[in-house]
Amino acid sequence: MSSIHDLATWEPLLRLVRDSHAEQLAAPGGCFTGQIGLGGWTLPAPQPRPEPGRALQVADMQDQFTAVERVQDALRADGVNNVSYVVETAPDGRSLLHVVDSGPAVEYGVVSPFLGALLLVEGAVPEPWRRLPEAVPGAAPAPSADPALLERTLRERLPDAIGATEEEIAAAEARLGVALPDELKALYRVTRARWQDWSGDYEAQERVSDAVGCELFSLDGLYIADAASRPCPWQFAADDAVVTAPDAAVQGLVGSPGWIVFGDNGGGDRLALDLTPGPGGHTGQVIVIDHERTIGAGLRAESLTDMVINRPDGRHQDRDADNPPVVARVNIHYLDSVEAAARPELEVLGIGRRKGEPVSLAPVVGLPRLRTLTAIPGTLADPLEIAGLTGLEYLSLGPEDWRVLLDAGAVPRSLSAAHIEVQGEQHPLPILDLANELLALWDRPLISRTVFEARLDTDR
Question: Which of 82, 337, 340, 347 has the greatest number of CB atoms lying within 10 Å of its CB?
Fold first, then answer.
């Protein structure tokens, strides 16, 4: 057994839980949950309050740090990124610790303390992550694209820079599997932007950034911003949709084999040359891939020459995918009925809190593109109507609705991923059992639990 499954690993954490919630744990049914990962944690323990006029110090949190570090050390030793746990008082009065191993078929729970999406089909990704760029007949470089002018301008600004050789450029093309646009070749002929060439001189690096208009990656650091380079949990990615307006400069993709990333704007957003522009764009335009978005990109400049010489301000990003008819939200803030959402283009339907009776799904049965349905508990009049949604790849329901589908043998077999929507105070162990029932239908690895009897009396 690994150390993460050793009760001694958890003793400091159990002591914190006991000290913070002794009264609740004294009663049968008392339950507290949390997660510990290498990058963060949740603990059912209140944050200490410093004395008035004094800021919170590291020493004030030392007990929590000690408890977490012991578990994190065990995670590192086991090669695991995170672990979930439950501390509960069983009906017979025993105090139990459940160490939960979600396994490879469950995504990390961002909202729930345990469960993100259940990965029913190994390796499957949501539809937007499978979408490739559309061909745009007649797409061409912008009139401002001028590799010779670009190279002259940069040589004037960076007279001492070390440029890439033709062999180095050819090696980069071979590594990427794509021919570099002439403008990008012209840039790297002036400077290959290697840190070694600057000999630790930060000012030299800044001169390059100032000359180009971004934090330039080295020739060796170029990469393709395809969909795989922009991962997103199913729970959120399934709600996205690819939408490209008829006059859009940039296709509303997650990523593209024609997006060649060459720099950063200094705030974490990537700059790329776009070889697969939208209907209103130009081949080789400069786009900005926003690190806070999971889909789409903004237009920075119509060409690399334009960006370097004219320094256009800001960027524009089309974004209408979160509105009907492709994505529809039925709740008190948006649409008031499923009927209003029922259009042939509909891909994503979310049903949230609303006034009135639970809704019927009859209006969307048979829609050809509907692939995602999310419904919070209590919003569906008849969960069995889901059987008529034959193209679903992602389904998120409350535990009661999943129970109806499981008991009727009506869980859609078209699903690639699923989610159990838990709201309010619910004991986590029945939710884990429900998740295992769903995973078992696809013969996926199950969630496992190691249970310890934990003494939470006053002895230390």
Answer: 347
